[in-house]
Structure of Phosphate regulon sensor protein PhoR:
Amino acid sequence: KNSMEVEFLVHKFGQNERLIVVRDISRLSKLEQMRKDFVANVSHELRTPLTVLRGYLETLEDADNIPPVWNKALSHMQSQAGRMTSLINDLITLSRLETDEKEHGQEVVSLVTLADMVAEDARQISTESKHLISVNGPKEAFIYGREQELRSAISNLVFNAINYTPSEGIILIDIAQGPDGTTVSVSDNGDGIDPKHIPRLTERFYRVDPGRSVNSGGTGLGLAIVKHVLLRHNAELTIKSTPGRGSEFICYFPPARSAAKPLKHSA
Ligand code: ADP
């Protein structure tokens, strides 16, 4: 009941001297847990009334004889309610990533199938903007992981690439697997990012241009979700970008994550 959580900091002096600082972080981690629970509860509590509101808005939009000014107001209300729904869904996703047991639900995931599915979804929403979205890499590449989480990470990267790349831009999902590990990289030839922003991009709600992000339907949580998914897979995210030329988001999975083709698929 009175267990204590401690943090060790070791300072090295010269050859043989060490200063070891032991810090009691029980209170800090209790507060951190309270914060996580609070965000998870608030997000869940907000979802139900929002669903009800959206339902009523739809009923009103379908009604006959609505004055034109109402129509405009209703469609604004719908789109704002839609934004709030995306925000709440992303907050719930993040909360789950922070609290769910890391070792649960591990399976062999086909990265090529996953990338193809994400690319197909992305093509559906970018028919007007005419982005070219393609998947490059080996015929097959498998890793141990949680498929839904990995799909949401790759989706977030690809949808960002679409949002921050002008029409007819090129978006590539590159997969590579070898003895040194596996990489999935998503690159675009879009706006690019000033290097000074790169270290902060995975923070919640950090945006280079908030107006731009909101207009494109962003919640400001996409890269935070990507970071957490990768952390849970012992993977790392590297961001390379040149303003005006484009960006590359590289997810690196260590060799221990590589998996063989599952038997059920080999028939
Ligand atoms: P958002 O919902 O705002 O896109 P993200 O967490 O997904 O939130 O991304 C954070 C910020 O990083 C974005 O607001 C944008 O400024 C920048 N960003 C992300 N992906 C790209 C990209 N492919 N090209 C240029 N900027 C990007």
Q: What stands out?
A: The CA atoms of residues 176 and 219 lie 30 Å apart. The first helix runs from residue 26 to 62. Strands lie at 6-13, 17-24, 107-110, 132-136, 142-145, 170-178, 181-188, 236-242, 246-253, 258-259. The chain has a mean pLDDT of 93.
